[in-house]
């Protein structure tokens, strides 16, 4: 007959296990808290009025895979605001990328970030524009940020299954394998909920084509959407078009800005050369 442990021994054993789990959980929480405190100390040590831009790592051909990260970095450069980049903590207080830390304060969402920067540093990139033009460009900015963005990520992460996009990044091998599984189903669901995802792949492409045609018409013969000099809206529009120009290599989406509407490709190169003269050095790996 099998000898069974006394109930008291069983209870004691369970208690020991539970206590051990509690200790491990506490140690883990303390470790995370210490790491967060160390990061905070590092972030706050960069100096007064120096912006710390938290974003994704650089790509092979484009300075970022996030159009909103390019948007904020472009703004920082146009406004001549001193900044440093952190790519180790890309997701901020609103679980979005990019975000910034400024004088100990964390600010998330690209529009909120630009609003904060504009107020704190008393910068107005649109002073050369009249009110009507500013309002019109804001409508174009919304179109780029809220419509073109969804078209591009629906194609990039879902319809294309990350195949083309991964060619533009320098991820480690394990992430190249895991990325499609991480992103495809999530972006499919989000795109459908947003509305773009209910359409067929061809319909989505036609939406992208029409949007690029609209942007090309609005740009016209001007060097920038803000006229003879870049405006706040240019930061956002460039961020979105850069994804087609450099993060969709060899695809029909890339062809929209390079071949079908070359004025948009020329615009991207103009923004790159004017605002990011160090573009090639920033890439991962850098280009000589």
What attributes does this structure have?
4 strands; transmembrane; single chain; 2 domains; mainly alpha; globular; four-stranded mixed beta sheet; 288 residues; Thioredoxin-like_fold; Glutathione S-transferase Yfyf (Class Pi), Chain A, domain 2; Glutaredoxin
- Number of strand elements: 4
- CATH domain topology of the largest domain: Glutathione S-transferase Yfyf (Class Pi), Chain A, domain 2
Placed side by side, the strands forming the largest sheet appear as: 2-1-3-4
- Helix/strand-derived category reads mainly alpha
Proportion in helices: 55-70%
Largest sheet: 4 strands, mixed
* CATH architecture assignment of the largest domain: Up-down Bundle
Q: Would you list the SSEs in sequence order as H and E?
A: HEHEEEHHHHHHHHH
Rg calc:
24 Å
How large is the count of helical segments?
11
Domain Metaxin glutathione S-transferase: 208-271
Keywords: Membrane, Transmembrane, Transmembrane helix
Pfam families: GST_C_6, GST_N_4
InterPro entries: FAX/IsoI-like, Glutathione-S-Trfase_C_sf, Glutathione_S-Trfase, Metaxin_GST, Mito_Protein_Transport_Metaxin, Thioredoxin-like_fold, Thioredoxin-like_sf
